[in-house]
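SECTION: protein entry
WANTED: fold as C-alpha cells:
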Amino acid sequence: MDTLLQDIRYALRQLAARPGFTAIVVLTLALGVGANTAIFSVVDAVLLRPLPYPAGNRLAVLWGERGGQHPLLISVPDFHDWRARNHSFEDLGLVRAQSVNLTGAETPDRLFGAFITASTLQLLGARTALGRLFTPEETAEGTGQQVAVVSYGAWQSRFGGDATLLGRAITLNGRPHVVIGVTAAEFRDAFGPTEVWLPITSAPNPAWFTRGQTNVWAIGRLKPGVSFEQAQRDLSGVAAQLAAEYPDADGGAGAYVVSLRDNLVGNVRPMLVIVLAFVGVVLLIACANVANLQLARAASRRREMSVRAALGAHRTRLVRQLLTESLALAALGGVCGIALAYWGIQGLLAAAPASLPTVGSIGLNIGVLAFCAGLTLAAGLLFGTAPALHGSREDIGAALTLRAADGSGGRRDLRQAFVAVQLALSVVLLIGAGLLTRSLAALQRVDPGFATDHLLTAEFRLPSVKYSTPERISQFMTSALAAIREVPRVRSAGFIRSMPLSGNWGGIQYAAESQGDLNTSTAPAAQQNAISDGLFATMGMRLRAGRDFDARDRADAPPVAIVNEELARRTWPGQVAVGRRLRLLGPPDTWVTVVGVVGDIKQVTLGEPATPQIYQPMLQAPGIFNTVAARTDGDPASFVAAVRAAIWSVDPEQPVWKLRSMDAMLAYDLAGPRFTMLLTLAFALLALLLAAVGVYGVMSYTVAQRTREVGIRMALGARTAEVVRLVVGGGLRVVGVALVVGLGAAFGLAPLIRKQLFAVAATDPLTFIAVPVLLVGVALIACYLPARRAARVDPMIALRTE
C-alpha cells in the first residue's frame, strides 16, 4: 500500500510539473468519457433500466397479424378466446387507448383515456392513493357499470387534488361515471400518459364487441419458464383455431407476441445503438490520441527511466509507475467528463424527440456514474499500457550517453499506427454520419402528397350517447364545417377522419368486382378514410381522374368512393378506374362505385412506401371521430381560438384538442431521424478533429526528431518544396493506409444501418467518395503545418544541435 501511495504521489507531481501536457490529455479524455456517459444515460433510461412493473421482463403485448403485417388490433371476442385457450400466460388484460371527453365544467376538455379490463391494471401492478381499482365484475361485459379510475396527475391538474372527487360522478363521453379510485403518484401506464381508465363496457361503440371488429390489443404476463417464442407458437395455434371456427371474421388472422420492452422501444433501439457505437469509437480515437502523447512524453523521459533502471528498478516497477500516471490522468479526465456529461445530458434532453420512451428520468444516477468510472478505468489502461511497456524498455547505456537515435523506429512506427487507427475509425464514423445525413435530406425532400403550409388541424370525438345516430352525427359535421368556413381569413376547410402524419389511420380489406369471392383471408388491405367535400382542395391533394365528392353524395345516394393511384394501379393495371366497383369487406360488406382517383399521400410516416387508399364521403360513412383541416391566410396558430369557437357555436360542450399546424406534425415525424443525424454527425466531426490533432502531433514530433536530417538535406542543396514534399509524403502514406482500412471497414459495417436509411444505399458512392476527399484535405493541412516549419530550419542551427 505504501508503494502504491508513493506511485500516486509521484504521478501527481509529474503531471503538475507538465501542466500543458496534462491539460491537453485531460480535455481529450473528458470529451470522450463525457460524451459516452451522456449517451449511456439515455441508453440506460430507455433500454436497460428495469420496467417499473411486477415481473416486467415477463410482460408481453399481444397484437393481431394478417398476411405478415403486424401489429394489428384484435376484436374483443378474440381477446376472450385468447385468454381462455392459451397455455403460456398467467393472465391477460385488454387495452384500448382513446381520448375521453370531459364535460360539466366551465369549458369542455379532453382526457387521455383507456378502456380496459380489471386484470390490466393488476398486471401493471397499479396501486391507489385514494379508493380502489376495478373489480372483475365492474369490467365484465353485460354489467354496464359506469365507474372510473383517475390518475394522480389528472387528479392534481384537472381536479385540484380535491379528495371529495372520490365517490363523485364526472361526465365522460356524455355519461356520468363514478370515480372509485385515484392511482398512486408513482404509477405510470405502459401505453401512454393515461389520465383516466374506464371499463371496456364503457366503450363508445357497441360494435367493439362484435367479432371481426378490431379495436383493442392485450397485455399478458408469461408463466415462469415460458419464453416469448413459446408464447408466440401457443397463441398462433389459438388464432389458427379461431380462423377455422370463424372464417368470415378471423380468416387469415394470426397473433403477434412482443415483449413490453420491445413494444415500448420500437425503432428507438437501433437508433440508440448506432449513436452509442459512434460515441464509443470517439473514445477509442481519444485514447489513441492520448497514447500518442504518452509515447512522445516517454521519449523525453528516456534518461529518467534508464537512470531508475540502472539504480535497480525492475521493469515491472517502471511499468506500474507509468500505468499509475496514466490512470491518474484518466481519473482527472473522468471527473471532468462527468461535468461535461451533465451539460451534454441537458443538450440531449432539449434535442431528443418528445416520443423517446424512457423509464424514469435521464440523468447522472448511480448506474450511470458506475459506467463512467468503469469507462475511465478501461480508458486509462487502454491508452496507458503500450506507452508504459515501451517507455520501460530502454537501452541503459545508450540512453545514459544520449547516443541512441531519438525516437526509435519502433516507437515511431507505433505512433504512426495509432494515427492510422484514428484516421480509419474517423472514416467509418464520417461515412456513417454521411449516410444518415443524406438519408434525412432525402426524407425532407419527400412529397407527402399535399401542401403543408398554412394548414391548421384539430381533432374532436363526439360522445356516442349524444350523437347516437348517423343522422345526428352528419348534422353536427355539416353545421360545424359551415361554421369553420365562416371564420375570417380561413380560405377553405374540410373534415377528414384520419389526418395524415397525425398517428391516426384506419384499414379495410377490399375486392374488385372482377376478383370474385375474395374473403378476409385472401383480400388485399387498404387505408380507409372518410372525408367531407372540399377536403382535397383544402389539403392541396391532386385529383388525377374523375370527380371530387359533392352534394350528390348524400347518405341516401348510391355509395361511392375515391381511390388513390396506387390502389388503381394494383387493382386495374393499365385500365380506367373511374366507374369500377369495389366491395369493402365488413361486416357488413359494402359495394361502392369509384368516382375519382386522387394522388398518393403519406398517411403514417414520410418514409412509408405507397399504399392503397380508399376515401368515402363523410355523409355516407359518418363517424364520431373527425379532424379539422383549415387552410389559413396567416400563421395557423393564430386561428386556434377561432376554430374552437366555431365548433362550440354548434355544440358548446364538445371538446376540441390537438390544435396544431401540419408543419409541426411534419417536424414531429422527422424528429427521430434528425436527432440521430445530429448526434452522429457531431461525434463524427469530433472524431475527425481528434484525428487531425493526432496527425499534426505525429508530424510535429517526426519533424522535431529529424531536425538534423533536414538540416543536412538543406545544406546539401535541398529546396523548400522538396523538404515539404518529404514530410507531407510521409504523412500521406499513413493516411493512405488508414483510408484503405477505414473504407474496407465502412463497406463491411454499412449494412448494419441499412434499416435506418431512406432512399440512400448503404454503399452510397457519393458518400464513399466525399469522405476520403474530406479526410485527405484535413490530413494535408495537418501535415503541411509541421512541414512548412521544417522547411524553415536554418541548416547551421540544425547541425549545431548535434
Summary: Residues 15 and 21 are 8 Å apart (CA to CA). The two ends are 44 Å apart (CA to CA). The longest strand covers residues 89-97.
